[in-house]
Amino acid sequence: MSLLFEELDFRWTPIGDISLRRRRDLTSGADIFEIKLGEEFLMSSLFTTSEIELAQLGLATLDGEELEVLVGGLGLGYTAQAVLEREQVSSLLVVDALQAVISWHQTALLPQGASLSADPRCRFVLGDFFAMAASEAGFDPERAGRRFDAILVDIDHSPEALLNEGNAGFYRPEGLTALISHLKPGGVFGLWSNERPDPAFTERLAAVFAEAWVEEVAFHNPLQNSTFVQSVYLARTDPGV
After folding, report:
1. What would the pLDDT profile of 183-193 be if each residue is shown by its tens digit?
2. pLDDT-derived band of residue 27, with 50, 70 and 90 as boundaries?
3. Which stretches within 1-95 are classed as H helix?
């Protein structure tokens, strides 16, 4: 196979065939890693600005030491890596529904995998984030009912564009209310979206959380030679709860 393109892995999953590809960008000479679900591109290392901003914006509002953070959706690992760059983070739990994605990091097929796997603060959990969010037990199989300082999510394309229609309940008031039970007082929820800010969803967050807002994340798209805008939704629980 040409060094310009390589399929690193291909697996069947409950949500469809998933593949990991590496290709050489002829302009920059850099290796680009891409994950596809069927024929649909899920993510690319060519575009990581908003994934990193999800972590940075979410944690920027938190004070104190020994922060406990949960990331929903491992993906290429850029959000998780950005979380670990903050020294105040004492533990990071990363939940992903696909064993393939976790394995790609554990075997260092992905560039972030080696550092994530080697960091003693980071632990991967195989599971359905949305089912866990709706449960009383929560996300940590080793500690039922564990609460976090921040829960940062990058799974669906947006609150309306879902990978699985079964996820829809999470974005409704009852689903968001259930999520609050897994956050500490003053804890932060952050959500990545591939779309521009949706005022209706920000209002939905504000009706459930103590406060809510949205940040635009703009970056240059070299494929279209234009500026692309994505969103990071943020919400905070009542510090007194």
Report:
1. 999 999 999 99
2. confident
3. 49-60, 78-84
Determine contact, residues 222/27, Cβ cutoff 8 Å: yes
In a domain, 6, yes or no: no
**Where does the chain have alpha helices with state H?**
49-60, 78-84, 99-106, 113-118, 129-134, 173-180, 199-208
Q: What is the value of pTM for the model shown? A: 0.94
Q: What is the pLDDT of residues 72-105, one digit of tens each?
A: 999 999 999 999 999 999 999 999 999 999 999 9
Question: Does some domain include residue 203?
Answer: yes
Full DSSP string of 46-63: T--HHHHHHHHHHHHT--
With H, G, I as helix, E, B as strand and everything else as coil, classify residue 100. Answer: helix
Lookup: tokens for 204: 């939905």
Q: Please tell me the number of Cα atoms within 13 Å of 219 on its side-chain side.
A: 16
Residue 162 belongs to domain spanning? 46-236
- Rounded to 10 deg, the angle between the 199-208 and 173-180 helix axes is 50
Count how many domains the chain has. 1
CA-CA distance, 205 to 199, in Å (whole number)? 10
